[in-house]
Amino acid sequence: MNQEVKFTVQPIRSRGLAALLRGQLTNSGSHVTAALTVTTKMAAAAESRFGAVRLILTFCVFRLFIGAETFNRQVTVQLNPGSHATPPDGDLLHVRAVGDNDTLHYLLSNQGAPTLLLVHTDSPNSTVQVNWTQFPAHSSLKVEPESSILYSGGIVFSRLLEYDDVNDTAEPSDFFPPYELQNFTWSRLKLLDLTASLCGTSTTFTNGSLCLQLSVFDSEGRGLSWPRLLHSANSSQLEVWLDGVSPRAAHSRFLLELKAVGGAYPLSRVEVHQSIDDEFTPSIFKVSQWVSSENSSSDVLGFAQWKPVAYRQRHPVLEDATPCRHSKPQPQSGEVTAASSALIHAFYSEPKVVGLNMSFGLAGEPFYNNTKFLSWTLLVGVGSPPVDFFSPLVISIMAVGLGTPMVLMLLGGVYVCIRKRTASTTAYEPIN
């Protein structure tokens, strides 16, 4: 028996269909809008971070190329200028570094306490005049024309101090009689290219010697051995080392007394700055600057710069580094200082002097007797001290280390955006 089955189809009104389609599209559109909003925010955040990194890298690259434009000087070296015979009491080294419109005169003497004198003039034609028949009497050494002198300053290595650190506190006390460096017997200056060295011994020394080496520069660069100080054409480097001296106690530590000499404005205050990194001086993140300024202004006339580290081996490794500290600068007698240094006595009539002590080693550090060697380096120059910056190697590492994550974030944001857009197009199923 056949039965007739009737299907009743309810018509869908056009307004209902339109509403249905509108609802589906609105729902799909909201997903797309939300996805685009999230992706836009992610991209904006990534762009913000990338912009900051890009700014840092741009500055580093800019500094790298600017640093490549170095200032050069024409450097000449003369031993005992104007003398027709070797002076019997010691040598006088004159290094003349000529710039475009100025001159630096470096003078190193081993008569009395070893002394470095630096004179800066505003003339490329200024000269040093020495009256050898009267040297080291007052005014027997001049830089002419005298009206061209912008700044003059000297560093005198006056005394070497030793104390017995029985309790290993590295607090100087119980000093032995000091080694007066003006009473040492100093060797003749030995010249090699732009370096000069001398060594001194004393009857109070048991073996060994105290040596100094001066290096002058015609352009910007960096020392070859630790602490690898950054130098410019406006600076020179002094390295001091104590080699093979038998200490007077089993727990001996040493201090070096320095005196800064000047006319109106000698080196007066020490500033300690944090350095950027320890790439060139491992484990050392500070640099000390003994500066001269006019009436305590921020403009630096001259400086002595060092890193607070000394080394216990001639060719050191990291374990041979030992910290050093400086005392507070104190005014000293100009007459006493001039009497100890022939160079200061010959150039200055009324020198102003400020002194400090540099002590080597901290509590727990090995004593001098451990290696019987100790070296320390400082930079002496005019104008503002050199400032360390990132090397090309560090800049490259920064570019890779900081730039790569930012690029990945941007690519990730683009990928999320594309995925969201693709998902939104397949969210609507048509009605069959």
Characterise this structure.
With 432 residues, the protein is α+β, with helices and mostly antiparallel strands. The protein folds into two domains: 35-69 and 401-432; 70-382. It is 24% helix and 34% strand. The strands form four sheets. Strands 1, 2, 3, 4, 7, 8, 16, 20, 21, 22 and 23 form an eleven-stranded antiparallel β-sheet that branches. Strands 9, 10, 11, 12, 15, 17, 18, 19 and 24 form a nine-stranded antiparallel β-sheet that branches. Strands 5-6 form a two-stranded antiparallel ribbon. A hairpin with a 4-residue loop joins strand 2 and strand 3 (103-109). It starts with 13 loop residues before the first helix and ends in a 7-residue tail after the last helix. The model is unreliable at 1-43 (pLDDT under 50). One of its GO terms (cellular component) is lysosomal membrane. InterPro entries: NCU-G1 (IPR029382). It is found in: Lysosome membrane. It is a single-pass type I membrane protein.
Topology, pairings included?
Blueprint (H helix, E strand, L loop, with lengths): L13 H55 L5 E6 L12 E7 L4 E7 L5 E7 L5 E4 L10 E4 L4 E16 L14 E2 L4 E2 L3 E3 L2 E7 L7 E8 L4 E2 L7 E2 L3 E9 L8 E11 L6 E6 L11 E8 L6 E7 L2 E3 L9 E6 L3 E3 L1 H7 L1 H6 L4 E9 L12 E10 L9 H34 L7
Antiparallel strand pairs: 1-2, 2-3, 3-4, 4-7, 5-6, 7-8, 7-16, 9-11, 10-11, 11-12, 12-15, 13-14, 15-24, 16-23, 17-18, 18-19, 19-24, 20-21, 21-23, 22-23
Helix pairs in contact: 1-4
Protein name: Glycosylated lysosomal membrane protein
InterPro entries: NCU-G1
Subcellular location: Lysosome membrane
